[in-house]
Amino acid sequence: MINSTSTKFVLSTLAVMVSSSLWAADAETADTQKDAIGLERITVTGVARGTRVMDSSVSVSSVSPDDLAISSPRSSAEAFRIIPGMKVESTGGEGNANIAVRGLPVASGGAKFLQIQEDGLPILQFGDIAFGNADIFLRIDSTTQTIESIRGGSASTAASNAPGGIINVISKTGTSDAGSVSSTVGLDYDTLRTDFEYGASINDSMRFHIGGFVRTGDGPRDPGYTANKGGQIKANITKEFDSGYVRLYFKHLDDKSIGYLPMPMYSDGSSISGFDSKSDTVHSANLLSTLRLDADGNISRGDMRDGMNPIVNSVGLEASFDLGDDWLVENRFRVSDVSGNFMSLIPAEVGSSSSIADSIGGAGSQLLYANGANAGEVFQSDLAMRVHSFDVTMNDFGSIVNDMKLTKSFDDSDVTFGFYTATQNINMTWMWNSYLMEVKGDNAALLDVVAADGTSYSDNGLYAYGVPYWGNCCQRNYDSDYTIKAPYIAASTKFGDLSLDGSLRYDSGDASGYYAGSVQSQVDMNRDGTISQPELSVSSIDNADPQLVNYDWGYMSYSLGANYQISEDLAAFGRISHGGRANADRLLFGKVRADGSVADEDSVDEVDQYEMGVKYRYDSLSVFATAFYSETEEQNFEATSQNFFDRKYEAKGLELEGAYYVGDFDFRGNVTWTDAEIVADALNPDVVGNTPRRQADFIYSLMGRYNFDKGSVGVNLIGTTDTYAQDNNDLEFDGYTQVNAFASYQLTDALSLALNVNNLFDTVGITEAEEGSIPDNNIIRARTINGRTTTATVKYEF
């Protein structure tokens, strides 16, 4: 493990590197080396019209496939770790990541103030839907051309619910007749994945691109069963006309991947005997199915092997035409059919075996192995887990989105008029149960509770249909529809070397539907004709008493920016922005009134941001620096703690990125310093003045690569300084540096071999924990980065 001392060493090294502005790019000529961070490229994300980065007044970055290869991501969210200003907690597996940008808070989960897009349109309208984070429905594969991002800036007016920024995953469109097939195999863990893509011209005016992946394997933490299985296919076809183009998109995603929730470990991240915090998981072959009552009260069975299972079928249309007389019209449309499952396990309590047994069966109760090799024997360990199944069916997350804009150009000025409209369904069912398990990482067995008089208080390890330890909170069903309408206007002009731009957007929306909580009743769940102890009180959906959802919202966003081209290689910019984020499903079960309405202050969270920065390049050196300040309101709800939040935050900081070439070496890196504070809290004033949970003073990413005739080798360092587990600022996690390594070699002109190592030094790095203070037994429930995983890839390009 690289501890906080070595983290400080890395930071000091980073400071030297940043002061020298070391950063890498994928250029092959002197001209592109001079533009190592793409200051000459045209950015299309978060701007009304494509704009040269050197002329723009926003902080914008791009990530290429080569950058991704060096950083060795194991999930889509891990690909975002190298974007400046982004703190990505991607320890949940293939999805369910928490993403914070420039100190804007992550009070519950997901990416609340950030919008993740595919080809310019959002994956979901809300980035923090409970058990439906946007990254669950995203897979990055060989069809990806680049990833663009903006932080702050015009994101407030360029997209709905995105005041913190936008990440846009842009697809290849067949601009060159080429393709590839690659196969990746895990060398120290079970994974096998094949990626493919091909694009070509059909004739002089039409081209296409198609690709995707298929994969299978256990994942980086062995659960005892095949946990990752599925794939994706994406395709697009483009028809070009004399005055523009029309492009049709298609995507099908059906992928099952294991979802990791907080696991038992000691407060410093070290492992409990029998459970390795870096490589083990609570999942087990001894718990593959769960019996529950569905939304309509029918007995059904859930499969733990579904994990996070997004099922997406979407069709999109993109068109752009020059109408003449300097008028340009653009339109993007997408309809998505989205559903799936979220199945995982979380320890609700890790503690004394006897006390857990007594709390269920009364004094003198004991635990017996319910299954596994020791089934029927007395459980002898002093430690056991009370485990809840997060069993969620995403019935309908479908959406329809359209963004149309009309631009008029006048010499050095442009005015854009746009109208954005969207519908988002959020229809899901929670069906949670309670189990007892041994604390073990290799196929843990379930445990039964037997009272002193011989009465059994559990059925094959299940002691409750529901979660009585959490007040039977979480048998829930809700079916709500959200509509968004947003007219916007953006204008830009140039006065010599001075560029000015401003934009205004008004978002309005409404929510309608219903939701229902839990009710207890006696049910013969296994249909054996006998009512067991767990069947005496079974949680089900209270369909007799549904609650109404019927509220609307509206908020104005604006952004004003200026960029001054001091010289060909130096520019300075500044911006002031105000934006908002409408709240959706996390208002249910506490913030919605009896008539379905919501208080105005609860329906929308507003964000004010100020930023200024410089862009500079000299020979092989490029630098992009941005100072920022933000004020944020937030209403939120956390499923695991059952807590609501009503707060205000402030954050200030500095974001640096740079690139540099030295002969055959190139270097890329970024560092973000953030000073964030809770400045008001209506529900818990004791935390006022504290640092928001999991907010680090410094986050950083460094990449270095050596290029030779037949290939390249590279290393990527991703790190964070110390953070607090919770807002009470008691339990503190050490900072860590994760080192990833990459090497590739061209066997022939078309065939290459690559080796990727994620977390080379097997570092422990805690990203989150349920506890805010160290308990008496020093055991917390937390998520750490995965231990070392190594893959080899063979790729054929044609």
TrEMBL record:
Residue ranges constituting the TonB-dependent receptor-like beta-barrel domain according to the UniProt record: 313-760
Protein name stated in the entry: TonB-dependent receptor
Coiled-coil segments on the chain, per record: none
Superkingdom field: Bacteria
Keyword Ion transport annotated: yes
Membrane-crossing segments per the record: none
Domain called TonB-dependent receptor plug: residue spans: 53-166
Record-stated family: Belongs to the TonB-dependent receptor family.
Topology relative to the membrane: Multi-pass membrane protein
Places the protein is found: Cell outer membrane
Signal peptide bounds: 1-24
